[in-house]
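Key idea: predict the complex, not the pieces.
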Amino acid sequence: MYKILLKQDLVPNIHLFKVAAPNVAKKAQPGQFVVIRIDEKGERIPLTIADWDEEEGSVTIVFMEVGTTTHRLALLEDGDFIANLVGPLGLPTHIDKFGTVVCVAGGFAVATIMPIARAMKKEGNRVISIMGARNRSLIFWEEELHRVSDQLIVTTDDGSYARKGMVTEPLKELLETGERVDRVIAIGPSIMMKFCAKTTQPFGVKTIVSLNPIMVDGTGMCGCCRVSVGDETKFTCVDGPDFDGHQVDWDLLFARQRIYIDEEKRSFEQWQSQHGILS
Amino acid sequence: MPRQDPKTRSNNFNEVALGYSDEQAQAEASRCIQCPKRSCVDGCPVWVDIPGFIKAICDGDMPDAVRILKDKNSLPGICGRVCPQETQCEATCSLAKKGAPMAIGRLERYVADWERAHMQSLNPPIVQPKPNGKQVAVVGSGPAGLTVAADLAKLGYSVTIFEALHVAGGVLMYGIPEFRLPKNIVQAEVEYVTSLGVKLELDSLIGKLFTIDELLNNGYQAVFLGTGAGLPMFMNIPGENLNGIYSANEFLTRVNLMKAYKFPEYDTPVKVGKRVAVIGGGNVAMDSARCALRLGAEEVYIVYRRSEVEMPARREEVENAKAEGIEFKLLTNPKQFLGDEQNWVLGMECYEMELGEPDDSGRRRPIAKPGSEFIIDVDVVIVALGTTPNPVIAQTAEGLEIGKRGVVVADEVTGETKKPCVWAGGDIATGSATVISAMGAAKRAAVSIDEYFKG
Ligand SMILES: Cc1cc2nc3c(=O)[nH]c(=O)nc-3n(C[C@H](O)[C@H](O)[C@H](O)COP(=O)(O)OP(=O)(O)OC[C@H]3O[C@@H](n4cnc5c(N)ncnc54)[C@H](O)[C@@H]3O)c2cc1C
Ligand code: FES
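Result:
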């Protein structure tokens, strides 16, 4: 059992948990993830490690309410327990002195890109961060991300805050102005990562994406998380989650993410009716 | 042995084999001639005193039968259900020469089940041996890990098992289905092991959470690797990543470990098509096919590239599968998978095969007949072509020698690896094999570890 030391609602439907997991906290590195299971009946889901504190013995995870599991998770409070947490899983993000690194985060991935931006900065890179959300009410950690970046650009899809538009627009402008960019890290919804990769491809700038296929064990045992990268099948949980965005077969990823769409709907409807929520 | 009726059982996940009644067990036990050769014991990889426990059944002394059995085998309820006795103790049984051998597996199961039903109250408190102050780390909690842990704990070692998953048992929990091996029996036998003083650390992926060297530098004087062969093999043919194509590991894990057969009460889903093809001819293939049937598939095929005699599955499971209505498409091998625009699999193009000369495995090599391609309509495919050891351990431990197909090289007798203070046994050292061979290797490793400490 893993105790929730702190729960924070970052925005109404995006939450942060600090979970007691001292051994994981000792080993975590940027880009790695944990697999959690809420209770006996829960499924195993991967969540990126957004932060860790060796002294306190905690790891921080951030999640958005999407389906049954994340809604169930959101009901937990400080002092509650989750049944299982295993990690740190996956290969860490390759951190090096590249020169100028652009970190692009879409939606709640602001939380997951934080340790990467911080590590890149610490390594001596010039870090330009771009964060995008659908609207103003979904913006969080602007200050925090700014602190670890030399420059921060914020976008909202509807223009309710900062610059209107998608994250790919300022990314493209940066590349077009002839700004020397040595590496792009893009994390967020798959569609956003795909378009970031498409944006950078003509400029030949290496673009790392953090893939989020469906997983079960997270240890390389089932092959559920397989993706195709450069025409080779890879298991995201052990070979990734970071891959070269220009080599990823995005259509396959999208298709495989939809495998359980009917079941997810059924499960969620049942959950809602059990909790007196009308859909 | 009585079994659930095939029609009924193909709709539920309850155990198929119902076990002997007391009278049946007595009758079977009394057939043993107690021959002086004791050739059945030679056929048992963990040296169970088989005539001894059978005699105790005859004498009506069940607690003694339990004691004799458990002296050598810490997991009898499991072995009685899943061991291939027909190629081991029952094959060497003296009665086998003239007629039916003793049903040793069924009697073993009977004794183990009797213990679970009766002995909690009779059980004398387990006498913990005097701790000898030595600490051993065991990685993986499958049959190999559990066995080495139990044997060392009985000798006074302080043993900790590290397991990556959220429950102990390895393949016994995530692979072999409930209807063949009820999970409460596995957990009861795991509890027996922890009752010996063995500590269990779940959610601990060694290689990531701690490396082997970190274990050795942090108080453990020896490490046993029993991490199995968990990496699923695919065929590398076109269309293999289509939706609806599972590795057997994924399909079985969803169903058995995550209880997808109780979805949506349990959160993990699994797709079950109307027409399911399972590729392979081993136990894993039979289990996958029989799970798919129980989940409601209308037609389930076993697609195997050799003929039935070459099938590595236990005889009993092949017969069970057939009785339940699984269709065998033998001498058939997939060439590619066909999908729709949504990336869902809808067909499998196969070759007809014929058998040529024997290969290294001694089995006749299957050869594709040119121009024989045909298509099978399917909406779910389960690839059950075997597994190799997961490379996480090997990648993070310096000094281990890795052999063919990713196995960790370990001495066949002692289990010693090329890395000092590290032993290995079970599927990690042999590739996918059997529960009892993993337990046998673990027993020998326990002896070797004990000798190492005694100097
Ligand atoms: C579906 C199926 C049916 C089978 N049916 C039969 C049968 O009827 N009869 C029979 O005799 N055999 C059968 N087998 C084979 C048998 O189950 C295996 O040979 C046996 O379980 C091997 O035991 P093991 O202890 O070596 O490994 P496993 O049982 O594979 O256990 C290894 C354990 O180690 C854990 N692990 C792996 N890596 C790490 C790590 N880095 N850190 C921590 N933990 C780790 C795994 O999660 C797992 O729990 C079957 C196998 C399958 C898959
Ligand atoms: S999640 Fe099972 S192999 Fe990656």
